[in-house]
C-alpha cells in the first residue's frame, strides 16, 4: 500500500507516484508546512485547491500542545485539523535543538525544557515513534540529532553516529501498517565520508524513504548540491528521497535535477505573512516582490501576471499593498494563498518538464 | 432604483426589500463591518456565502489610507476589495471623535490630526460626500458630530443642531444617482425632545433612509429601546431605519421589534478574533462561549450544535481551542466565519419569525 513508482526520468531527475493510505502523491512534491496542525493563514481546502497532495506537520510541537494523547483521543491529526490527505510529521530533532532551553543530549535521548511553559521533557527515539503513531502520521520521521552550522567534523561525526543508533531504535519502535511509512534521516554535515557512512547505515537498517537532513542551514548552494549528488548516488533508485527544509525555487529545481523527490519549507507561508510574494521571473528578474514597497500603492496588476490563483484572479497589488501595510489578516491570507499556489505551480511545471525531457532547459519560473 | 418595500409586518416590526444598484437586501439586515476595505480575517466570498447582502466600510479610515482618490483611480471600492454587493460607508463622525487627536469642531467642519501619521486634516460635510462619491459607496452617510456618553443636555443639543446643519450641507453636496442612497443620522442623546427635533429636521431635508446614531454608547438597553421607540414613531413607514453600531443579538431582536431595519456592529468579527463565539442558547444559556476556556480542550462538539457554518461542520471546539490559544491566524478565521454566519442566521430567523407573525415569541436564538 505504500508504493513508490518512478514514471519518467531525465538524467538523475525523476517523476513518480507515491501511494499512501491517505492518498496518492505526484513527485517531485512540495509539502506546505503546517507545524501546529494548521498551514498558517489558510484553510485546508485552500491548500488542497492549490494542488498540494501532502502537508508537513511537527510531532515535537504537537506533543507539547495540545499533546499527542489528546489528538489521538480526538480522532487523530487528520480529523483534528480537517485534512484528509497524507501528512508527514517531522519528529522534531531540529526543533529540540533550536527552540528548547537547557537541552542535554545523551546516547539514550534528549532532555529539554519546553519552550512553551518550561516543563522538563525527556525524549527518546521510541517515544517519538509513539507520538507519531498517536497522531496517525502517514509518514513518520526518525528522531535525529542536528548540529549547528558550521560544525567541526568531529562534532558532526558524533551526532551522525548517534542519529544512526537512534534511527535503528526508531525502526524497532515503529509499528508497521499498510500504507504508512517511516523515513530515515541522513546526517553528516558537509563531510562526504560522514554522509556515506550515514547513508550506508540507514540503508542497512532499511527505511521506506530517505531524507537528507542538515542542509540549507547556511552553507553555499553549490555545497548543498555537492552533498545531495554524493548521497543520491548511493541511495536506491526505488525509494523516495526527501530534502528537508528546502527551499527557494532555485534550490528545488537544482535538487530535483540531482534526483530529489520531496521538499518542505516554511518559505512560501512565512514570507507571505511578511509581505513577500514569489513571482515568475517575467514579472521581475529577482523572482520575488515585497508588496510593502511604495511602488505598488497604485499598481493595478496582480502579484504575478501568469498566475491563476485566487489572489491573482481577484486582487491588485495596490489592494494587497494596502491590507499588508495595514496589518490586516486578509493580507497574510491572500499572500499565503498565492505563495502556496506558486510553489505547487512550480512543482507541476517541474514534473511536466521531466515528462517532456526538458528540465535541463527549464525556463518557466 | 433605490427602493424600499415593506413585505410583512408584525406590530412595529417589518420585513422588507431594499433594492440598490449593487443588489437587493432583505431586511431586517445585519451588515458585517469591513472598516479598512476588508471584513477582518475572512474572504469576501465567505461573507457572501454566510448570506450577508451588504457590508459596511468606513469613509474616514479609507480617506486616510489608501485615500479616496487612490481607490477611485483603482476602479472604486467594490473592485478594490473584491465585493460586488452593496456597501454602506459610515462617514466617520464617530471615528473623528474617538480616534483622532487635537480635534477642533466648528460650525464649518472639523480639524484633526490623523491617528495614523499625525498629518492635519480638515473635514467638512461636503468633503465627506466627495469621499463617498469617489469610493462609489452604495449608501452614503452624512457627517455628524458625536458626543461622548453621558452628555449633558446642552452639549447633546449643540451637537444635534450642528449635525442637522451639516446634514443639510451633505444633502446639497450629494450627487444623486439611480440606485444609490444618502442617509441622515438622528442625534440627540437620550433626550426625547432633542431626538424629536433631530428627526423632524432630517425629515424636512429629506433622506433615502434614516439612521439612529449615538446609541449603544454605554446607556442601559431599556434607555436605548425607549429612544428607538420614540424616534421610530415619528419616522415615515416607507423609509429604511438603521440603528448604528448595534449590537448584541438581544439588542437586535429588541430593536427589530421596535421597527428597525438595519444594523451593523464589530461584535461578531472583533469578538471572534478574541476567541468569543456566539452560540444558540441551547448550547449555553449565556449565548456566548470563550473558546480559550480550558473546558474546551477535549470537547468534540462544534461551536454551536445547531449551526451549519463551515467552522461548525468541520472543526471541534478542541481544535479551535488549540489554534486560538496558539494565536494561529486560522483561529481568527474560523471563529469569524462562525460569528458572521451566526449573525446572518439570526437575521434569517428574525425575518422568518416576522413573516410567520411570531417574533414576539422568538425563541430560536
Question: Which keywords apply here?
Answer:
homodimer; 365 residues; alpha/beta; TIM Barrel; eight-stranded parallel β-sheet; 14 helices; 19% strand; globular
Outline the secondary-structure elements.
The structure is a homodimer of 365-residue chains.
Chain A: E1 3-10, E2 13-20, E3 23-27, E4 29-31, H1 44-49, E5 55-58, H2 59-64, H3 68-73, H4 77-81, E6 87-90, H5 93-99, E7 101-105, E8 110-113, E9 120-123, H6 125-135, E10 139-141, H7 153-173, E11 181-186, H8 192-205, E12 209-212, H9 221-234, E13 241-243, H10 249-257, E14 262-264, H11 267-273, E15 276-278, E16 288-290, H12 310-314, H13 317-325, H14 329-355
Parallel strand pairs in A: 4-14, 5-6, 6-10, 10-11, 11-12, 12-13, 13-14
Antiparallel strand pairs in A: 1-2, 2-3, 7-8, 8-9, 15-16
Helix pairs in contact in A: 6-7, 7-8, 8-9, 11-14, 13-14
What can you tell me about this protein's structure?
The structure is a homodimer of 365-residue chains. With 365 residues, chain A is an alpha/beta fold. The first copy, chain A, has two domains: 3-264, Queuine tRNA-ribosyltransferase-like (TIM Barrel); 272-339, no CATH class. In chain A, 40% of the residues lie in helices and 19% in strands. Chain A is built from 14 helices and 16 strands. In chain A, strands 4-14-13-12-11-10-6-5 form an eight-stranded parallel sheet. In chain A, helix 7 runs parallel beside helix 8 (192-205) and helix 8 (192-205) runs parallel beside helix 9 (221-234). The first copy, chain A, is globular and about 60 Å long. Chain A starts with a strand and ends in a 10-residue tail after the last helix. The mean pLDDT of chain A is 96. At the A-B interface, helix 13 and helix 14 of A face helix 13 and helix 14 of B.
Amino acid at each position: 500500500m505504500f508504493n513508490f513508482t518512478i514514471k519518467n526520468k531525465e538524467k538523475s531527475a525523476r517523476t513518480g507516484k507515491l501511494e499512501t493510505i491517505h492518498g496518492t502523491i505526484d513527485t517531485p512534491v512540495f509539502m506546505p508546512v503546517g507545524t501546529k496542525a494548521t498551514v498558517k493563514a489558510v484553510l485546508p481546502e485552500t491548500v488542497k485547491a492549490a494542488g498540494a497532495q501532502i502537508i508537513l506537520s511537527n510531532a515535537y510541537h504537537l506533543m507539547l500542545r495540545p499533546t499527542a494523547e489528546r489528538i489521538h483521543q480526538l480522532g487523530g491529526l487528520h480529523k483534528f485539523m480537517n485534512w484528509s490527505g497524507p501528512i508527514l510529521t517531522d519528529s522534531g530533532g531540529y526543533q529540540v535543538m533550536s527552540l528548547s532551553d537547557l537541552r542535554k543530549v545523551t546516547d539514550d535521548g534528549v532532555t529539554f525544557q519546553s519552550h512553551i511553559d518550561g516543563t522538563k521533557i525527556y525524549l527518546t527515539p521510541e517515544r517519538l515513534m509513539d507520538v507519531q503513531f498517536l497522531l496517525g502520521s502517514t509518514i513518520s520521521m526518525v528522531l535525529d540529532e542536528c548540529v549547528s552550522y558550521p560544525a567541526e567534523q568531529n562534532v558532526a561525526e558524533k551526532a551522525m553516529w548517534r542519529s544512526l543508533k537512534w534511527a535503528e531504535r526508531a525502526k524497532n519502535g515503529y509499528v508497521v501498517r499498510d500504507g504508512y511509512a517511516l523515513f530515515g534521516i541522513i546526517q553528516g554535515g558537509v563531510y562526504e565520508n560522514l554522509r556515506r557512512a550515514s547513508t550506508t547505515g540507514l540503508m542497512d537498517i532499511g527505511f521506506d524513504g530517505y531524507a537528507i537532513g542538515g542542509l540549507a542551514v547556511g552553507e553555499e548552494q553549490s555545497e548543498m548540491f555537492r552533498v545531495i549528488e554524493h548521497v543520491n548516488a548511493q541511495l536506491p533508485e526505488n525509494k523516495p528521497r526527501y530534502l528537508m527544509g528546502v527551499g527557494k525555487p532555485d534550490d528545488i529545481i537544482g535538487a530535483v535535477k540531482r534526483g530529489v523527490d520531496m521538499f518542505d519549507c516554511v518559505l512560501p507561508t512565512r514570507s507571505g505573512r511578511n509581505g513577500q510574494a514569489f513571482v515568475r521571473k517575467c514579472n521581475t528578474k529577482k523572482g520575488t516582490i515585497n508588496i510593502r514597497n511604495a511602488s505598488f500603492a497604485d499598481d493595478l496588476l496582480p502579484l504575478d501576471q501568469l498566475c491563476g490563483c485566487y489572489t491573482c484572479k481577484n486582487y491588485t497589488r495596490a489592494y494587497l499593498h494596502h491590507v499588508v501595510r495595514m496589518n490586516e489578516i486578509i493580507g497574510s491570507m491572500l499572500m499565503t494563498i498565492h505563495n502556496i499556489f506558486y510553489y505547487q505551480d512550480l512543482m507541476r511545471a517541474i514534473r511536466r518538464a521531466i515528462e517532456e525531457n526538458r528540465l535541463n532547459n527549464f525556463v518557466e519560473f
